[in-house]
């Protein structure tokens, strides 16, 4: 089976694509499509995070949980929506924190491709979702795949920043070698929890300070 994914990732992850769990994911998606179900993001965007941020460019991993499940929202980058789609509440809160942390003006769109192009891997733990059914693909095997992604970044790269927001993301901390990487944890930016430690976390300036202290170009967060 041919997985269309950027070449450096294809090399890093090639063992995963033939494992039973991954073949099961493919089978599951095909079965749902045949049954006429709508799946987000569209097929060509499922690996968008990898295609926009090659393995050798990764500086920061920003872990999300599940793709947006409304029409036109998800495009394969965690927390990001396509231009023309109103930024969802969590993303609005991310922009508020960026404004208070580094003075970034609140953008008029929610497309984070500019971050991804600079080395921010916008990774969701599940790479697909059924329309209007949040977490509907959380148990089909994606977690095994994305855990492997995190572990491989940890093992094969140096001085990467992992942004783990919320309990779910923080459960991935054990996959990261903290002797050479920086893990920054905070509450999830959702309206239910943002005031419990996301606001004021200053993760954007802290991440850049760490990168620069290790001789790595900082991320331009401006959108």
Descriptive account of the structure:
The chain is of the alpha/beta class. Helix content is 35%, strand content 11%. The chain has helices at residues 7-13, 20-34, 48-52, 89-102, 113-117, 142-156, 166-170, 203-213, and strands at 39-40, 60-64, 120-124, 129-130, 161-165, 182-186. The protein has a four-stranded parallel sheet. Strands 1-4 form a two-stranded antiparallel ribbon. Strand 5 (161-165), helix 7 (166-170) and strand 6 form a beta-alpha-beta unit.
Q: How would you briefly describe this protein structure?
A:
With 223 residues, this protein is α/β, with parallel strands linked by helices. Helix content is 35%, strand content 11%.
Write the layout of secondary structure elements.
Blueprint: H1 7-13, H2 20-34, E1 39-40, H3 48-52, E2 60-64, H4 89-102, H5 113-117, E3 120-124, E4 129-130, H6 142-156, E5 161-165, H7 166-170, E6 182-186, H8 203-213
Parallel strand pairs: 2-3, 2-5, 5-6
Antiparallel strand pairs: 1-4
* Separation of the first and last Cα atoms: 37 Å
The gross shape turns out to be globular
The level of helicity is: 25-40%
What percentage of the residues does DSSP assign to strands (E)?
5-15%
Low-confidence stretches: none
Order of helices and strands: HHEHEHHEEHEHEH
What's the rounded overall pLDDT mean?
97
Structural class: alpha/beta
Q: Output the number of helix runs.
A: 8
């Amino acid at each position: 089976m041919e997985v269309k994914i950027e070449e450096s990732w294809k090399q890093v992850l090639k063992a995963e694509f033939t494992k039973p769990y991954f073949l099961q994911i493919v089978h599951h998606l095909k079965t749902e499509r045949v049954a006429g179900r709508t799946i987000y993001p569209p097929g060509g965007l499922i690996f968008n995070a990898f295609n926009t941020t090659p393995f050798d460019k990764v500086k920061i991993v920003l872990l999300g949980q599940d793709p947006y499940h409304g029409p036109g929202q998800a495009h394969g980058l965690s927390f990001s929506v396509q231009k023309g789609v109103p930024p969802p509440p969590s993303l609005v809160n991310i922009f508020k924190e960026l404004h208070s942390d580094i003075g970034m003006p609140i953008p008029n769109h929610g497309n984070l491709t500019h971050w991804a192009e600079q080395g921010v891997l916008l990774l969701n733990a599940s790479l697909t979702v059924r329309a209007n059914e949040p977490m509907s693909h959380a148990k089909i095997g994606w977690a095994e795949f994305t855990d492997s992604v995190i572990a491989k970044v940890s093992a094969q790269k140096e001085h990467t920043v992992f942004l783990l927001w919320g309990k779910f993301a923080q459960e991935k901390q054990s996959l990261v070698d903290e002797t050479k990487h920086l893990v920054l944890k905070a509450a999830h930016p959702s309206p239910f929890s943002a005031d419990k430690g996301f606001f004021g976390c200053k993760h954007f300036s802290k991440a850049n300070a760490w990168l620069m202290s290790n001789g790595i170009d900082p991320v331009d967060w401006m959108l």
